[in-house]
User: Fold this.
Amino acid sequence: MPIVINLDVMLARRKMSLKSLSEKLNITIANLSILKTGKAKAIKFSTLEEICVVLNCQPGDLLEYVTNEKYEELFAK
Assistant:
């Protein structure tokens, strides 16, 4: 999927841990980890909104479209 989740980037910019974000959102670390690693198949708009509020960012700061070639380059195993 050529949508890249930049949650780790935003957490670093805000100097916040995944655990701290989890506590503020009342979402399990496991669920946030799935989102952070790009393994999530979907995200509710309400969850995206809550993340944006806590991290003081826009959805576009968290979600990025890349071409299939770039995606494969980023996530080649």
